[in-house]
Amino acid sequence: MAGSGETSNIMDEGYDLYIPLSALNAYLYCPYRAYVEYVLGEWEDNVFTIEGEIEHETVHSEKERVVDDSFQTTRVFVKSEALGLVGQIDVVEERAAEIYPVEYKKGRQGRWLNDQVQVCAQGLCLAEQLGREISRGYVWYMGSRRRREVKFTPELMAATEKACRDLRALYEGAPVPVPAYRKGRCDPCSVLSFCLPRETAILRAGP
């Protein structure tokens, strides 16, 4: 479980570059998107990103609040020296002596690995900072108005650590991922105009 020592030998050499937590989600959604958005720094707002920002502002409207029997703190900054990650957690929730991250997403509920890895990485950062075990987190899907529990299993933590290594390699000069068009994922993407996946595929196919 997070904070129990399994990650202590993974990446504890210290880093000059700390990778944003959100970049892990982007990388697993589409490696080329992560390259364009986080390595090249290219970004273009669209209706989907603006809607997401507005909804997140609502989430962050109060710094601290009590909801049912839980105490919530919003926009919590975290950093991991072991993994070389930095970023913020939408909500850190404390309930019955347990503490865990809650990530808010614009879309509908699903078993999306990129969302699970992002909240797992948040949990690893939080566990490292607090020096305590954190065994799960949640993703709240605004489109479904429901939250999904994410258990920090050894398999999920291994996937999170691998994503950190692969993404860091991209920052450090690994071959640029090839853009590939996927219906339902590419059209709402904020870097579609930079990526041009369908046009790239035609050019790669040749005459």
Describe the structure in your own words.
The protein is α/β, with parallel strands linked by helices. It has one domain: Alpha-Beta Complex (Lambda Exonuclease, Chain A). The chain is built from seven helices and seven strands. Strands 1, 2, 3, 4, 5, 6 and 7 form a seven-stranded mixed beta sheet that branches. A hairpin with a 4-residue loop joins strand 6 and strand 7. Helix 1 runs antiparallel to helix 4 and helix 1 crosses helix 5. It is globular, with a radius of gyration of 18 Å. The chain starts with 18 loop residues before the first strand and ends with a helix. The N terminus is likely disordered.
Given as residue ranges, the uncertain stretches (5+ residues, pLDDT < 50) are 3-12
Q: Helices and strands: which structural class?
A: alpha/beta
Main sheet overview:
7 strands, mixed
Distance between the termini: 53 Å
CA radius of gyration is 18 Å
State the total count of DSSP E strands: 7
Form type = globular
Q: Give, in order, the helices and strands.
A: EHHHEEEEHEEHHH
Output the CATH class name.
Alpha Beta
Percentage of helical residues?
A: 25-40%
CATH architectural type:
Alpha-Beta Complex
Number of helices: 7
CATH topology: Lambda Exonuclease, Chain A
